[in-house]
Amino acid sequence: MVLLKSKPSFMNESIIPQSFNSFLNEFLHENKSFQESVTETNHFSPKADIIEKTNSFEIHLAIPGIKKEDVKINVEGDFLTISGEKQSTTVAENEKMHKREIHFGKFSRSFNVSKIIKTKIEAQFDNGILLLILPKSEVAQPISIDIK
Q1: How far is it, in rounded angstroms, from Cα 117 to Cα 132?
Q2: Quick one: DSSP state of residue 114?
Q3: Model's pTM, two decimal places?
Q4: How would you write the pLDDT of the chain (148 residues) with one tens digit per residue?
């Protein structure tokens, strides 16, 4: 079996102008990609893992390259918000940036903590991972009922 690549008929230049084809190529391929265009807004959302344990939840937030002094953790109402800013790397005048995939700028993540004992939240920071330990309130902890 032979696989042939071809432009779909809707890409025919008589139907769609060349400028739109250029836009699609830019969007779909490795030139200045859509992701790089979006990144230029200088905001990003760090990835999080949330683990439920018997008496607590853990949030592991990946924020490599950020100092713990540049991270703020606030609880307001039923929401815990983690925010901060990562500075952009600079390029010398005689250098040229070819690709930027490392996110920088401001970030903010919020989590519902309505079932958490807010005064007992703990935070640790190690190797670019922020670990939050969120103890469950008694209402949120599972209860096992024996059948008689």
Answers
A1: 13
A2: T
A3: 0.64
A4: 555 555 555 555 455 555 555 555 555 554 444 444 444 457 788 999 999 999 999 999 999 989 999 999 999 999 999 999 887 777 888 888 888 777 778 999 999 999 999 999 999 999 999 999 999 998 766 777 888 8
Amino acid letter, residue 133: I
Q: Which domain holds residue 21?
A: 15-42
Bridging pattern class, strands 71-76 and 79-86? antiparallel
Q: Which residue has the tokens 């344990």?
A: 53
Interatomic CA distance for residues 94 and 109, integer angstroms: 37
Same domain membership, residue 87 and residue 33: no
**Would you give the distance in Å from CA 54 to the centre of its chain?**
27
51 and 93 part of one domain:
yes
Query: How many distinct helices (H) and strands (E) make up the chain?
Result: 2, 8
From the CA atom positions of the chain, what is the Rg in Å?
24
What is the distance between the alpha carbons of residues 112 and 122, in angstroms, rounded to a whole number?
16
Domain assignment present for 10: no
